[in-house]
Amino acid sequence: MKTAKTSKLLLSVLGLALLAGCNKAEEPGKPAAGGAAPATSYLETIKARDKLIVGVFTDKPPFGFVDEAGRYVGFDTDIGRQFAKDLLGDENKVEFVAVEPASRIPFLQSDKVDLILANMTVTPERKDAVEFTNPNLRVAVQALVPEGSSVKKLDDLADKTTIVTTGTTADIWLTKNHPDWKLLKFEKNTESLQALASGRGDAYAQDNLILFSWSKQNPGYRVLEEKLGEEAPIAPAVKKGNIELRDWVNAELARLGEQKYLLKLYDQYVRKELSDDTKPESVIVEGGNWQG
Amino acid sequence: MSFDFAFILSTLPAFLKAVGVTLQVGLIAIGTSLLVALVNAAILVYRTPYLQRLVKLYVELARNTPLLIQLFFVYFALPELGLKISGFAAALITMTFLGGAYLTEVLRAGVEAVPVAQLESGRSIGLSEGQLLRHVILPQAGILSLPALFANFIFLLKETTVVSAVAVPEILYTTKSYIALYYKTYEMLAVLTLICVLLFLPLSLLLSRLERRLQHGQFGS
């Protein structure tokens, strides 16, 4: 059969092409690959480019969002500007790339960004995939339900539908600990919230800071007391093996900690989003010093 | 960069399920699109007053709005008006909306492509309009439409990946879930590409064979 032969040939060619693509670890893309043993220093590469490329969220206030003027701003995003200022001498020498939760790690792996500053919780699986710096925030996962919902505790969700955003800590934790629960996954935080609002699921599991902030602006919802898993650090991340940039970020975080820089950003962006009795120390990690 | 085959194997059952969903959405949507298109094409060919205008408006509206936007509208916006439709149903509705429009155009073009001489010859030997349609127009229009029709079937099948956006667990949704959970970006995209090739290429070959066979009657060998 002529057609069967042709398709077999095509398949093997395609397979080879895919495999070949995977073996190429260092691509001549814009941000030079920061993999093992770089020929030139990675920091020098950034300086030569005269621009720091940072992946940020654009729909997760107060951490990364777009202000009225169309600028990328927020707690995480502004840290990126400060990094650019201290590394390249100008806070405008930064290029922000919009990422979604699920695209954060692929963007690092494929050298599309130098650094991810997008509210990424440190988990064992992610540690295998990227290089985390010291943390800048702390977080726990909780679940948001409508005010009148019959759901009182986490286990009530066992026979219900829980909404998550693809690739978030909540997605990972629920898949691992409750593989039999029904999950509905969306790409964007805003889509997940919209899905909850239109009753497509019974609860939305997400980082509690995002839920607190959203439910303060959108009455009619409550956050379940019970947490999904332990409180965990949130940290910037660089490509796996890029020790040089990681160490620079750590030193930079320590230096900013001396100026209480994160507290300043907390006052600017985060404080008004949370209830008045929230202590800053329960949210931010100044200087990169994590005490779990 | 190592290629984790063991991981790929562990995901295969889930992908098998996803292929089922993809085929389900794709094949049902092709069927319903064809039904919509047959009705619409009849309206256009017979120049039914008023309805003809409506069909033209529908075709333009459907062809000039992206599927993703139609999908978001049906899934996220309609509930605000009190109309809650499941992700699967939203997928079928929007794909039929889009596919129906494309196929309407294909069928209409097929009928219009039948040479006028054929109609005149038919009339001159005294065929009634009904006979003309059955024995002269439809057999030829059908054959003439086939290539474009089949191309649009494949197009619709491929478009099913878009419905992953409203949490329909088809192949792209499954791929993205695994990437998000285990960061096996290369492995999962390779599997996805391979599935697409395995799914669409044989179908494409089958359809072109069928096309050749059916056209044999018209053009000879």
General description of the model:
- Chain B: Pfam families: BPD_transp_1 (PF00528).
- Chain B: GO terms for molecular function: transmembrane transporter activity.
- The complex is a heterodimer of chains A (292) and B (221).
- Chain A is of the alpha/beta class.
- Chain A has 2 domains: 42-136 and 236-280, Periplasmic binding protein-like II (D-Maltodextrin-Binding Protein, domain 2); 139-232, D-Maltodextrin-Binding Protein, domain 2 (3-Layer(aba) Sandwich).
- Helices cover 38% and strands 21% of the residues of chain A.
- Chain A contains 10 helices and 14 strands.
- In chain A, the strands form 3 sheets. In chain A, strands 8, 9, 10, 11, 12 and 13 form a 6-stranded mixed beta sheet that branches. Chain A has a 5-stranded mixed beta sheet with strand order 5-1-6-14-7.
- Chain A is globular.
- By secondary structure, chain B is mainly α.
- Chain B has one domain: Orthogonal Bundle (MetI-like fold), CATH 1.10.3720.
- Helices cover 81% and strands 0% of the residues of chain B.
- In chain B, helix 1 crosses helix 4 and helix 2 (51-63) crosses helix 4 (87-112).
- Chain B is flat and about 70 Å long.
- Chain A binds chain B through residues 3, 6-7, 10-11, 14-15, 18-19, 21-25, 101-102, 105-106, 109-110, 125-126, 128-129, 166-167, 171-172, 175, 184-187, 191, 194-195, 198-200, and chain B through 1, 3, 76, 79-80, 84, 87, 165, 167, 173, 176-177, 179-183, 185-186, 190, 193-194, 197-198, 201-202, 205, 209.
